[in-house]
Each structure stands twice: as structure tokens, then as C-alpha cells.
Amino acid sequence: MTFEPIAGRYLNVTVAGREQRIFVEMAGEGRPVLCLHTAGADTRQWRHLLNDVELAQDYRLIAFDMPWHGKSLPPTGFETEEYLLTTDDYIQTVLAVIEMLDLDRPILAGCSMGGRIALQLAALHAPHFSGFIAIEASDFQPAWYDIDWFDRPDAHGGEMGAALVSANISPHAPRAERWNTLWMFMQSGPGVFRGDLSFYTRDASLIERLHLVDTGRTPIHLLVGAYDLTCTPDDARRTAGAIAGATLTVMHELGHFPMSEHPAAFRPYFVDALSKMAIKAA
Length: 282
Fold this sequence. Notes:
single chain, alpha/beta, globular
């Protein structure tokens, strides 16, 4: 029996005046890459890349569970409130983790809502980072579904969430990884997926900020799966076209959760994206 190289620890941070106990996983040495999970999921989506011994030689891969997700408990008093993720709280959480881990201008790699917040950070807080890999990310994507289905007394929110996202997984995904990906959504806490989707489908503030992104200072590369029906290749192209100097790659056998649903097919795209993150002056 052997242990995987991933090490997990808890980090105590303060976000918007509230104490948060955040679970962090790390592996490798070298240039830091901070990885953000999708709505309703957790760091397990990144486990294959964190276990990649070749990447670990040049990069320190770090992933964390957002509050209310995975092993990160909700803040004290959560039982009296409705969870609704906001852009500001999301940004402040990412910046607090960077500060507490003392990360020197990491590359930020985020998927879905993580990709959306990566672009927000590129517009508003670029000096904290040396590059952005925005995966399945668009300027705005209104819901084509009723998000209230994910927090109802007469429906299992986790199973509803898994049913929704199953259509966003590529048919080329290995069966085992398809079901591992769906399992994470089945385990999502009550109302958490709905609260994430509130941020993802209702906050259109990024559109008016895209002109603030300076790729001459901080490179941005977008990755989008050909089988993604939530953030389609056309959505990603529209977004990349609004950012001068941004680059884009369509991943031909992948869907909305590429690092989780088909890690072997995603790896070369991710390695190529990392190669585009040339270090520039802050």
C-alpha cells in the first residue's frame, strides 16, 4: 500500500468578517498553481492533476474547498441563513487563501464558476497573479433551468444536481470518471449547488469589466470543451474575443468538467495552457 503525494491541511481565514475553516490540498514543488473547483463540487475534481508526478516536478498544485463545500464546513450560524455565493465574497476568499499560504503570484486555474471568478480577478486584482487559465468560462451565462429545484423539500438536491450536470459530461468520458464526477454533486450540501448557481447565472458584472483585463501584464488562456452545453465553445469564443490578447483552445473530446470527467484527455490541454503562462512583471 502506498500513499498518494497529495497532502491535505486546514487553513483558518477571515472573509467578510467571518471565520472560515478551509480544507486545502497540495502537491509538488515549483511555480504555484491555484486550482478552483466548479459549482456544487470540491477539490476532488483536481485529484488526478495533483497526483501527476511529472507536473509536480515543476509546479506546486494547490486546490481548496470553498466554504460550504467538501471538507470546508459552513461558517458558524449557517443554519439560520440562506447560502448565496456573491462575486465579492468569492474574490475575497481566493485572495485570503493566497495571502495565508503566502503564494507569490500564482497561476490561477478555475473551472466553470471558478473560471468565471478567474476572469473577475484578472479584471480587478491581476497583480496578485502571474497568469489565468479560465476553463469552461464565459462572460455571463443565464440559467436555462430552474435553480430552485436544487433546494426543495420534495426533491433530493444532490441527485437533481447530478442529473443536470450529467448532460454536460462528454460521451468520451470513461465510465468510472463520469460516475466519480457525478458522485461529488450527489454529496453536495443542501442548497449549496443552488447558491453557487445564483452567482453563476445572475451576476452579469463581468461583462462590463472585461475591458479592464490586461493580457500584456498577465496572460489569459481559455479552455472549453466541445461537449459543454452550459458554457459552449461559442460562449467562450465570445468572451475571449472581448479580451484583447486572450487565447482560446477548444477541447474536442471533453465537456464541462474536463479535469474530472476525462483527466487523461484533459492533461495535454492543461500542460499547453501552463506553457502559455509566461512570467511577466507585476
